[in-house]
Amino acid sequence: MLLFEGTPFAINRIILVRFIAIxxxxxxxxxxxxxxxxxxxxxxxxIELAVGFVRDNIVFxxxxxxxxxxxxxxxxxxxFTIIFLNLTGIVPLLxxxxxSVVGLPIVLAIVSYIAFIYAGVRKHPGAFFKNSLFPSxxxxxxxxxxxPIEFVSTFILRPVTLAIRLLMNMVAxxxxxxxxxxxxxxxxxxxxxxxxxFSVGTFAFGFAFTLFELLVAALQxxxxxxxxxxxxxxALVEEH
Length: 240
Hints:
Elements: H1 13-33, H2 42-87, H3 103-123, H4 128-133, H5 143-191, H6 198-236
């Protein structure tokens, strides 16, 4: 523990990394939007391009413009929060993704789940749960099999798989980087002699995996946000 050990507000390294990531995220958006102009400057242009990418390629493309505008304040911050937390895994001195400990992926999955339920209940207040668990056109006796499957797949597996997908991808990337750079340190400073030549290979692999981890960080933010948008869209369809 770094601060407040033994209290509910204890701060360890992963919590500190999350604080730093969110602080940097807020700073970037504040710097990019503090002087909004009709003809945007460099910082404003970057922010607008980034937000426009999420808005057009994830939100509007999945939910349409009308419903997309309603959920834009949720999905855009979700995307950028995840990507900034993921990127801390390749930042020197931090070296761990803020999303590589299970608590945060669970919280994000719960937020996604609540948005899904809210969208369905708001759109179809009297029929959302009924039609989710008892799809139309199924013979009555078959509901004995179909309803438990629908309940597990729709209301349990969706948030669980969201959390696990994000967690395990970031944990796997972190472990690969630790392995490569630990091996580099060992061959270079401990083994010495002829074995120090192996450090070149392990460092090269570490550098390559760092670039790959950069791609994974962005991809996982994209996938998590996209799946949240898809689940919301499924809750809004007229069958409910």
